[in-house]
Amino acid sequence: MEKINIERFDDLDGSPATKTVTLALDDTTVKLDLNDANGAKLTKLLALWLEKGTPVKTGSVSAVKAAGLDATAIRAWAQAKGLQVSDRGRISTELLVAYTADQAPAS
Hints:
Blueprint: E1 19-25, E2 28-34, H1 36-52, H2 63-66, H3 71-80, H4 93-103
Antiparallel strand pairs: 1-2
Helix pairs in contact: 1-4
């Protein structure tokens, strides 16, 4: 039996990547492999626009999955903060923005 390992590396600093993020602006769409810290920095940087924008349905892939986030961790974080979150189903964009901003390392 043969086993193939695929390794992804952060496109910014070369460290092991933990997620792939897709960004689109005008006619350009890119995918970035990022570690948790760089992913959180990107989300924090874009938080204002993510909060104000209109969500676009991306088929069956949720925003949580697309961002490489853990829905269980987000729900636990929200409950610990006293925020309203459903036990199942979609997690709101506002909650995702708040979660990723809270997880971002202080700069």
